[in-house]
Amino acid sequence: MSNQDSGFYIRRLHSLLGVIPLGVFLIQHLLVNFTATYSEEAFNFAAGIMGNLPFVILLEIFIIYLPILFHGIYGIYIAFTAKNNVGRYGTYRNWMFLLQRISGVVAFIFIAVHVYQTRIQVFLGEEVNFQMVEQIVANPFWLVFWIVGVVATVFHFANGLWTFMITWGITQSDKSQQVMSYIAILIFLIISTIGVMAIFAFV
Q: Main location per UniProt (predicted)?
């Protein structure tokens, strides 16, 4: 297999992992967090279910952490080797290309910190519950950090769906790609609103 062929397949795998399982997990995770808008008890119940799934450690390693590491590290490589041309061609799609790279780096940093603040603390004897999150976002810095991180992560996912559809040959015509752009914007607005509302439920 040539380097060009291997690069093609790696990019397809990178794109796929961004949607399945990471995109699916992102939506599920934000929906669990959104239960905090109902009540403290509702969030603790939902978080408890997720934290007590059978083989939860193995599920997290193989469905979340390993895919995130591959997608994130290869994505950062793409971000720092990509040739951004927004200064020369200021079209909408070129700006989305640049923002996809920036949001990917922000999302990777946010997820790393988020995992430390929550999942790593579980290994140190803490419990993921309403009080844990409430204490974190009580700090204005972490509140802003979480909001920016969630919005950047959701943007990266939603805009990445547009690229995914092209990479996998689903949207080939200009018309279908334009329609997918509108769908991606709608997905971003809906999911980011859910994510930000969930954060403010802990404030």
A: membrane
